Amino acid sequence: MASDPSAQADAADSAIDSVSVLSEDSRRRMFTFIRRARRAVTRDEAAASVGISRKLAAFHLDKLVDAGLLRARYETPGGIRKVGRQPKVYEPTDAQITVSIPDRRHELLADLLLDAVLTEGAGESAAQAAMRTAGQRGRQLGEAARDETRPGRLGPERGLTACERLLDRYGYEPVRETPTRLRLRNCPFHPLAAKATELVCGMNQAFLSGYLQGLEVNGVQAVLAPEPGECCVRLGPSDPEHDDVTAEDR
């Protein structure tokens, strides 16, 4: 979970916008033609590739540029300098489009597992290394969030409010069941969690426990509480008998 979750949320919004832009047939076909050309393409070439006018092609190409899927510049094809204005050419950007509803973050799980493989100690099993790296990453993110927001002492209610921001950005779909209990309606690692439930759920719990530690949330723990179709982890009070808002949190 190396990347900034807010940036990931922005990327998801951008991906949805990009898919919307590509829903138009001529626009999508021109985009495919330009990607496969492996060079800068003129408006005339793009128009000819789908059989539309140059003016209409220019409209669609500019939409693709606005969506971040293409970039445009002025250049003479072939590098031959001619008298007059150089034509506008288009080429694909490095943008990658991934849209998943509900949100899935398989790349985050892969990143943690890669770290585990690279740092596995002589006395560790692969599973132990995975739990360790997940806990460390969660703690690092919690510490970074605390340094950024400087929230002071965090009891259960305020602590869970702080956690909700990260959980929402990572696709957990947090729902407040009580002031001190947070249910996670979506598993970002489904369906991989179903293939290796003990490993993935254990890493998930270790990551969220690490985040609570790094953020210094008091009176809350991440516990395994699997429900069909939901995340296997729930955040709740360390002492189940005290599931109310404390005076410190009011």
UniProtKB/TrEMBL annotation:
<dbReference type="Pfam" id="PF12840">
    <property type="entry name" value="HTH_20"/>
</dbReference>
<dbReference type="InterPro" id="IPR036388">
    <property type="entry name" value="WH-like_DNA-bd_sf"/>
</dbReference>
<protein>
    <submittedName>
        <fullName>Transcriptional regulator</fullName>
    </submittedName>
</protein>
<dbReference type="InterPro" id="IPR036390">
    <property type="entry name" value="WH_DNA-bd_sf"/>
</dbReference>
<dbReference type="InterPro" id="IPR011991">
    <property type="entry name" value="ArsR-like_HTH"/>
</dbReference>
<feature type="region of interest" description="Disordered">
    <location>
        <begin position="133"/>
        <end position="155"/>
    </location>
</feature>
